[in-house]
């Protein structure tokens, strides 16, 4: 698979060595914060308070991400250029994987972490239970099953196909 095309003309490099700096237009996760939120209990957020998720179709042994292309547009990976600052998260649970595009994604308990574009403000967790495969991550990397939605919610549509329904987006999550 090919890496996503960049909207930034400055990002000429499409492949990078695992230890190379990420492209300038990549948003990095600088901090992991383990905390409790109302109704959900223990969660992990980034430095801005956005709740982070894990994907059942990924692997923790060995750690691997299976969310690419349109999936990664809806579930942006929590990327890093090194070791994020930790608060309420044990450093022996945190690692990284190198994604297909050469960026480094944070893992927790072996599970790659993601944000959800359906969360419109920090602290929301609208991605909980989406597709029956996406769950809020706890500070140890395990699934948070405290507050599951009724039924199986569907993910929002990828931004590039906002005029198409999520059911027609052609990817499974």
Structure commentary:
The chain has 173 residues and is mainly β. It is built from one helix and eleven strands; from the N terminus they run βββββαββββββ. Strands 6, 8, 9 and 10 form a four-stranded antiparallel sheet that branches. A three-stranded mixed sheet has the order 2-1-7, with no helix packed on it. It is globular.
List keywords for this structure.
173 residues; mainly beta; four-stranded antiparallel sheet; three-stranded mixed sheet; 11 strands; 3% helix; 23% strand; disordered N terminus; disordered C terminus
In short:
This protein has 173 residues and is mainly beta.
| Dominant shape | globular
Poorly predicted residue ranges: 1-22, 162-173
Radius of gyration: 15 Å
Number of strands: 11
Approximate helicity band: under 10%
Report the sheet-strand fraction.
15-25%
Number of H/I helices: 1
Main sheet attributes: strand count, strand direction, barrel closure: 4 strands, antiparallel
The H/E string reads: EEEEEHEEEEEE
Protein structure class: mainly beta
Mean pLDDT over the residues: 84
Compute the separation of the termini in Å.
Answer: 17 Å
């Amino acid at each position: 698979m090919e890496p996503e095309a960049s909207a930034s003309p400055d990002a000429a490099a499409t492949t990078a060595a695992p230890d190379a700096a990420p492209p300038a237009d990549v948003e990095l996760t600088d901090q992991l914060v383990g905390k409790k939120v109302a109704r959900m209990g223990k969660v992990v957020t980034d430095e801005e308070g956005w709740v982070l998720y894990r994907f059942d179709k990924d692997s923790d042994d060995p750690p691997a991400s299976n969310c690419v292309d349109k999936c990664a547009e809806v579930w942006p990976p929590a990327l890093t250029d090194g070791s994020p600052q930790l608060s309420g998260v044990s450093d022996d649970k945190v690692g990284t994987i190198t994604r297909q595009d050469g960026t480094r994604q944070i893992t927790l308990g072996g599970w790659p972490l993601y944000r959800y574009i359906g969360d419109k403000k920090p602290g929301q967790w609208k991605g909980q239970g989406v597709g029956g495969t996406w769950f809020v991550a706890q500070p140890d990397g395990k699934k948070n099953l405290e507050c599951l939605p009724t039924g199986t919610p569907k993910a929002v549509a990828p931004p590039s196909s906002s005029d198409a329904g999520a059911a027609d987006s052609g990817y499974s999550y």
